[in-house]
Amino acid sequence: MARVVVDVMPKPEILDPQGKAVLGALPRLGFDLVTDVRQGKRFELQVDGEITDAVLAEIDKVAETLLSNPVIEDYEVHVEDHSVSEVAHEAGRA
Amino acid sequence: MKVGVVTFPGSLDDVDARRAVSIGGNEAVALWHGDEDLKGVDAVVLPGGFSYGDYLRCGAISRFAPVMTSVIEAAGKGMPVLGICNGFQILCESHLLPGALIRNDHRKFVCRDQRLRIERVDTPWTSAYAAGAEVTIVLKNGEGGFVADEPTLDRLEGEGLVVARYLDDNPNGSLRDIAGISNERGNVVGLMPHPEHAVEDLTGPGTDGLGFFTSLVERAFA
């Protein structure tokens, strides 16, 4: 079982009122370093079997068709090679 | 004329829309999101509400409902389709209309009587209005900010595809004060304010919204 992650972000030129709300809250909490916030969405998709080019092409279609609206959002697809437990296991072995 | 009103899970204003269709002199036909059958209607209204809980994006899931396959096909052949509020969002997600609707710039839900100017009156939904008519219609939305890229906005204005524009005060950050648009042919219209809530003096700010529901009749007898 492999995992493909799709990150969806509002396009830079599109106003992001939710990000603005988060940004507005930060100084009230004493966090003064952050100068801008953009809020997006992260989708974690489980896929059976190997991640082949054909699988990635289909995920790209999923991202373009449903997960994002290309009029206002950009998306990025990336593959997570190992599950969290596998990464932890390898770290322990090293 | 028979006018179908689609009910999606989470639609709020489908019953009001059917009532407005009847008051406007047409026969209202209830349509169901899960059924591709348009029951022989002559026109379709996609009503307001929060279909599918606004999950993912407003209108994004509804756009793939079985009924929308038929609506998109019929719209392509010229059937009049009016999307109100959530219905407007569904039309944009379906790419029947350009642009998209995002969260209000001031981040608050807005509910008020809104003054509008009706700018395109050669559509089956707006022919009852005089060009430039100033009307007051209920507006209620959380994600009503109309956005599109500059070339699209220029094209909408240049080709006269802006159906309605906000007057006095822009309530939601819509670019160029756009409250409603149409496709080139004019049969598909999307509108953020709610004309179905302005068809009777007893409820709402007056009857300025009635024209959206009487235009079809005037066209039929024209």
From TrEMBL, chain A:
Cell compartment(s), UniProt: Cytoplasm
SUPFAM superfamilies: PurS-like
Domain of life: Bacteria
Key words, A-Z: ATP-binding, Cytoplasm, Ligase, Nucleotide-binding, Purine biosynthesis
InterPro entries found in the cross-reference section: PurS, PurS-like_sf
EC numbers: 6.3.5.3
Catalytic reactions of this protein: N(2)-formyl-N(1)-(5-phospho-beta-D-ribosyl)glycinamide + L-glutamine + ATP + H2O = 2-formamido-N(1)-(5-O-phospho-beta-D-ribosyl)acetamidine + L-glutamate + ADP + phosphate + H(+)
Pathway: Purine metabolism; IMP biosynthesis via de novo pathway; 5-amino-1-(5-phospho-D-ribosyl)imidazole from N(2)-formyl-N(1)-(5-phospho-D-ribosyl)glycinamide: step 1/2
Protein family: Belongs to the PurS family.
Known function: Part of the phosphoribosylformylglycinamidine synthase complex involved in the purines biosynthetic pathway. Catalyzes the ATP-dependent conversion of formylglycinamide ribonucleotide (FGAR) and glutamine to yield formylglycinamidine ribonucleotide (FGAM) and glutamate. The FGAM synthase complex is composed of three subunits. PurQ produces an ammonia molecule by converting glutamine to glutamate. PurL transfers the ammonia molecule to FGAR to form FGAM in an ATP-dependent manner.
Self-association and partners: Part of the FGAM synthase complex composed of 1 PurL, 1 PurQ and 2 PurS subunits.
Protein name per Swiss-Prot or TrEMBL: Phosphoribosylformylglycinamidine synthase subunit PurS
Upper classification of the organism: Bacteria, Bacillati, Actinomycetota, Actinomycetes, Propionibacteriales
Gene name, Swiss-Prot/TrEMBL: purS
